[in-house]
Amino acid sequence: MISHPSYSKTTGINNIGMVKTYQPFVYSSTVKNINLGVSTLDGGYKMTVFGWGTGELDPIDPFIVLRMITYTSMTNIECSNDFVPKKCIDNGQLCGLRARDKGVCVGDSGGGVVYRNRIHGVIGIVPSEANATEECADGRPVVFARVYTYYDWIYETLKT
């Protein structure tokens, strides 16, 4: 695992990493590559979020079924204002909003945020993984790593 060198566990800034494999992937009808997003997503876009996790609200065993759910993207200002106390959301972060009782939870970290068949975000640490007193799917925005802003780091890291 290669973590971003400026990752901050305290703030969640630069919460992105890559996994180095020693064997190339074997592509098939169920294993495919996905292109990186080529722009930022502001508010109002319907994004599909994928993850292997589970939570108290959905008792299916984790890591068995890949799940997906739709989130609506938010501007960083809207997202920041939805947190109490107010949370600083930077350009490397992408926010999504979903109604209560459905959403990313334990085990979803690392899952993709997809819009128009391109990956625009990666699920970071979800609330209940970071703080046992926080609930998943509590109606607050979820903050993802915005892949577009990490192009340079991704490509430089792939060269090494």
Please describe what this structure looks like:
The protein is of the alpha+beta class and 160 residues long. It has a single domain (35-149), classed as Thrombin, subunit H (Beta Barrel). It is 12% helix and 25% strand. It has a six-stranded antiparallel β-barrel with strand order 4-5-6-9-8-7.
In short:
With 160 residues, the chain is α+β, with helices and mostly antiparallel strands. It has a single domain, classed as Beta Barrel (Thrombin, subunit H), CATH 2.40.10.10. The protein has helices at 76-81, 127-130, 151-159; strands at 2-3, 17-18, 35-36, 46-51, 67-74, 93-97, 112-115, 118-123, 142-146.
Key words describing this protein structure:
160 residues, alpha+beta, Thrombin, subunit H, six-stranded antiparallel beta barrel, 3 helices
